[in-house]
Specification:
The complex is a heterodimer of chains A (357) and B (153). Chain A is of the alpha+beta class and 357 residues long. Chain A has helices at 5-20, 76-87, 140-144, 148-157, 185-191, 233-238, 261-264, 296-309, 316-328, 343-356; strands at 22-29, 32-39, 62-68, 108-112, 117-122, 127-132, 161-170, 173-178, 198-201, 204-209, 219-222, 227-230, 257-260, 272-283, 290-294, 331-336. In chain A, helix 8 runs antiparallel to helix 9. Chain B has a 4-stranded antiparallel sheet with strand order 2-3-4-7, with helices on one face. The chains are: A alpha+beta (357), B alpha+beta (153).
């Protein structure tokens, strides 16, 4: 199965496209041109979440095929495999989401139960697949940050690291904010909207290296998604201007309010910036916001567990990258005060300080 | 309980770690916990990467720290229990004959603080896909209500 898996999937996608037709979207992410090919129109809305740059349609570096299982594959081996996988997935999926009998050095294969998503990435052939068992709507977090496992696996093969963090800055430099959900990352990033600082992400971005400078100076943060999420009504009240842009006003109680920010604040977005510092937000309850240096190990402990936990099939390579990042980029505790208006100024001061060093 | 006669090794591939100047951060992908080890704890953990018994660790640490091998060995018993409880190490087969263990560098007389593991389990629910129990209709990862950090030094 492993030997022919990618070819079987490619054949299955082409069979489906012969029935449904195809549409393509070219997008530039982390300075890489990626082409998404959708069978039919159903999943095309997923592109809404991406930060839109200028992609070259001529020669995409990665081709991603997206379709669902409304029509089963003609290949009986693949049909049997997908049937057994989706019905008895707990026997096929490892504790980190990888397919036990398929995932390996040749390609990455991850299954996400619940939404029933299969991701396969052949980084050598620059082919990737996202197959969904049923043509049913995706959960909101998949809509807000689509193709996450797929992009993580392929970008890792290109020396780019997917991270769970918020980021704001200017073209001259910016900061990454790391920490688990609820630590203040999103609120801090949103506090910088429509200020002198620009928004890169509130949840996920990609870190690369320019290769032009010393390790301490050449890390670059790249935008991926234009989405922002806020947890509850108190958060929405802190950002009243956002309330009318909520994408999911009829959400369930346990869902976050989501926004496609680039649609509403295109001038506030930034595609990438040199990374000047890593911040660990801490909500203090006091009025003023400030910052103080903290150790690289503390920065790694804030960044790595929450990043690895959200990326199926992540492992030693990811931690090695994050460890180097923590060792080379200065880290600060960001002591968040209740006066949100202060936050952009404090961050600008910190960025200027680091840029001057 | 840790056994002085036994050999132990870092529980790879599930356990990943990164060393800093005086601290080591370890992440257990199998349990979803992460850990901070400082000073002698970090040194002992690094030595365990190449498999070691508690007496071997004590002798190697006594060259750097201001304590006798016997004093260190006593302190290492509880430390090894912590590591075993957190599944950061596992029993290893006795290695073939080899040179005595050595810590990198040539520091001596460093004040000895009994080694300890600070364990954090607050992201455990996000980390783990329990194929049988944890996945609901909403998919994976589907964490229960977030809890606060439960650092348990």
């Amino acid at each position: 199965m492993r030997t022919n898996f990618v070819d079987y999937l490619l054949q299955y996608f082409e069979e489906t496209v012969a029935e449904t037709g195809a549409c393509t979207e070219n997008i530039r992410l982390a300075e890489r041109d990626i082409q998404f090919c959708f069978a039919g129109e159903r999943s095309k809305d997923l592109m809404r979440a991406f930060v839109r740059g200028n992609a070259s349609p001529a020669a995409p570096e990665l081709r991603v095929m997206v379709w669902d299982g409304q029509t089963p594959p003609r290949n009986h081996v693949l049909r049997a495999y997908l049937f057994t996988l989706t019905n008895w997935w707990h026997e096929y999926v490892g504790p980190r989401g990888h397919l036990l009998d398929v995932h390996g050095p040749e390609f990455d294969a991850v299954y996400v139960p619940g939404p029933d998503l299969l991701y396969v990435v052949d980084s050598r052939r620059n082919l990737a697949f996202c197959w969904k068992r049923e043509p049913t709507p995706l959960p909101y977090w998949e809509v807000c940050s689509p193709f996450r496992p797929l992009l993580h696996c392929w970008m890792r093969s290109r020396g780019l690291q997917f991270v769970h963090a918020a980021a704001v800055g200017t073209p001259a430099g910016g900061v990454l904010m790391a920490g688990k959900g609820g630590s203040g990352k999103s609120s801090t990033a949103l506090a910088c909207l429509q200020t002198a600082l620009r928004y890169l992400c509130d949840d996920y971005c990609v870190i690369g290296r320019s290769g032009e400078k010393d390790p301490g100076e050449d890390y670059v943060a790249h935008a991926l998604y234009s989405t922002a999420k806020l947890v509850g009504q108190p958060d929405l009240e802190r950002f009243p201007a956002l309330a009318r842009h909520v994408w999911n006003p009829d959400r369930e109680e346990d869902q976050k309010a989501a926004f496609f920010l680039q649609e509403h604040y295109p001038e506030s977005f930034l595609d990438h910036f040199p990374l000047r510092a890593m911040l660990l937000p801490v909500v203090t309850g006091e009025r003023d916001t400030g910052f103080a240096p903290c150790s690289a190990s503390k920065a790694l402990a804030a960044l790595a567990p929450s990043t690895l936990s959200q990326l199926p099939a992540s492992g030693a390579d990811d931690l090695r990258f994050l460890g180097q990042l923590a060792k080379h980029v200065p880290a600060y505790e960001l002591r968040l005060g209740t006066d949100i208006g202060q936050i952009p100024g404090v961050l600008r001061e910190l960025i200027s300080l680091q840029a001057a060093e | 309980m840790a056994d002085n006669q036994a050999y132990y090794r870092v529980n790879t591939p599930g356990v990943l770690y990164e060393q800093f100047d005086d601290e080591l951060v370890a992440i257990n992908l199998d349990s979803g916990s992460y850990h901070s080890l400082v000073g002698a704890a970090a040194d002992a953990f690094l030595l365990l990467a190449s498999e070691a018994s508690i007496p071997e660790l004590a002798v190697a640490l006594s060259r750097k720290y201001a304590a006798t091998a016997a004093q260190i060995e006593t302190a290492l018993g509880g430390f090894a229990d912590q590591l075993l409880k957190e599944k950061l190490i596992a029993v290893a087969p006795e290695p073939a004959t080899r040179a005595p263990l050595h810590l990198p560098g040539n520091q001596t007389g460093v004040a000895f603080v009994p080694p300890n593991v600070a364990a954090y389990h607050d992201l455990q629910s996000l980390f783990l896909l329990d194929p049988i129990h944890e996945v609901g209709e909403q998919g994976w990862p589907q964490a229960p209500s977030p809890g606060g950090p439960d650092s348990a030094p």
